Amino acid sequence: MKLRINKTYILGLMAVGALMASCSQEDPTLFGGESDGYYFNYNSADDMTATINFADSIVTNPEVGYVPLKIRLLGHLPEQTTSIKLKAEPVEGYETPQVTLPTIEVKAGEYDKTVEVKVARPTQENTTYAVKITFEQADKSMKDFNSFVIYTKEVYERPDNWTDSYYGEWTAEKYKFIAKTLKKAAFYSDDSYTQSNQYNPRLIYAVRDWHNAHPTEAIPYDIPFLDGTLFYDAYEQPEYWGDLQNKYFGNYDGYGFGTLASSLGVTTQNEYQVFGSTDEAEMQKSNKHAVLLMLQNYNNQFEQGYSYWGLNSAFSVPMVEGVNYDVVAPAFWTNSLTAPMIKKYYGEYSEAKYKKMLQIASSSVDGFKPFQLFPVKLMWDDASMTNTPMWDTDANLNWTYMGEQVIYEFYKIFKQKAPSLFPDGVTAPAAEPQEKQ
């Protein structure tokens, strides 16, 4: 019988190709009814695999996944319902996942069917499982299109655009926590503003809620705090903040808290140890550490060319009376360019003298910050490629004294309370020149 193709017959594309490749001078014969069969309807054998990574569905956290399979009949268009049975076979080298195979019935007149295989969530993370789906009546299926392999796993991998500064170091457990908190699996792909100003504080509050629900357990998630100079939404005051925290870290300020916490390297994992203790000795220890970092930071910023307003925006903590602080020599005083300006009022530097000055100033000046003792700055000159030392006319003491007058006012306070430590005969500086109107 000659090959005639019309709507009464169905032949898969690959079947047609195989038949045509086999014919030379003779026409192929038509399938007999006993040769009717079925196959997985894909363009090539390479397309007959699928992978489910349950990590991609961490927000919904499903217990099963579904893989669609496209099946096509081969041969005559059926005049009655065709039943097809699938079976699951192991794949060498892989553990076999639990699957549920569908019941397949192709109605009369149909030849395409898409069904779903239900695949259970893997019992272990970081392990790939595999199963081969075949036709139970193998003799009815087309070679090379008679099996479909399903891989399943739950594997979490660090995405390339993960940002440590917003989320801390990547871990699978932290990623799960963040995705479930934000209800978004690919949160790390959003713009930086959203990640820093919306996601970061939400995560910090979520960790605090977790801690309140598990007060005796170690906090497993280390979400960093963001510098208040870069962070546009102030952090809400934590519930542990009280008089003890005000004493050692100053009255709570949402922006300042972020800068302080960021500068101290505080994360949600050690927040309660650094800031939230009810033990005054522990708070004093945290305060001493913070003061030392504050002084070091002032030095770094001064050497980088920061002046009054930049230094005033840096993190600061109170220096509590009676605490023996560790200090670093202030760069304002030791820098060869500005040292003569400072020595005119304070004399030679010594650690004992500096500690005494900090003690006196802390108890004498409201809102005192140590950098205020040194109203000088380095001004870079492009022409000479050098720094020029200058009195900082923006520096002020309670907006009453400006520029060099600030250091003279401190000098008077120190000279009165510790006269032997400071030079004699220092007179008030000349008035700052007024800008022309």
Summarize this structure briefly.
This protein has 437 residues and is of the alpha+beta class. Helices cover 32% and strands 17% of the residues.
Please explain how this structure is put together.
By secondary structure, this protein is an alpha+beta fold. Helices cover 32% and strands 17% of the residues. It has helices at residues 13-22, 164-167, 172-182, 192-213, 243-249, 254-263, 271-274, 280-303, 308-313, 331-334, 339-346, 351-364, 404-417, and strands at residues 9-10, 37-40, 49-53, 64-76, 82-84, 86-90, 99-100, 104-106, 112-120, 129-135, 147-153, 376-381, 386-391, 396-397, 401-402. Strands 1, 2, 4, 7 and 9 form a 5-stranded antiparallel β-sheet that branches. Strand 12 (376-381) and strand 13 (386-391) form a beta hairpin. The radius of gyration is 38 Å and the shape is elongated.
